[in-house]
Amino acid sequence: MIAVRNALLLIGLMSGAFAGAAEVDGDWSMPAKDYAATRYSALTQINAHNAKGLHPVWSFSTGVLGGHEGQPLVVNNTMYVVTPWPNTLYAFDLSQEGYPLKWKYRPDVNSNALGMACCDAVNRGAFYADGKIIYNLLDGHTVAIDAASGKELWKTQVADLRSGETITMAPFVVKGVVIVGPAGGELGIHSWLKGLDLQSGRVLWTARNAGPDSEVLARPESFHSFYDKGDDLAAHSWPNEAAWKTGGGPVWGWISYDPQLDLIYYGTGNPGPYNPEQRQGDNKWSCSVLARRPEDGALIWAYQFTPHDNWDYDANAVLILADVMVGGHERKALVTFDKNGFQYTLDRATGELLAAHPYVMVTWAKGVDLKTGRPILDPAKQTGASKGQVKDICPSLEGGVSPASPAAYSPRTKLFYTSTNNFCMDWTAREVRYLQGTPYMGADTPYHAGPGGNLGSFIAWDAVNGRKVWEVKEPYPGWSGALVTGGDVAFYGTLDGWFKAVDAKTGVVLSKFKVGSGVVGSPITFRGPDGKQYVAIYAGIGGDMALLAGDVRSDDPADVRAPPDYLKTLWRHTSQGGIVWIFGL
Amino acid sequence: MVMLRCKSVALIGVLIATQLTAACVRHQNAATSASENASANAVPPAVRYEDRIWAGGVPPPSGGLYSVQANSAQNAQDGEALFNSMNCDGCHGSGASGSVGPNLADGRWRYGGRDEEIFNSIFYGRPKGMPAFGGLLGQGGASLLVGYLKSLPKPDTVPTESSIESP
Question: Does residue B51 sit at the A interface (CB-CB below 8 Å)?
Answer without folding.
Answer: yes
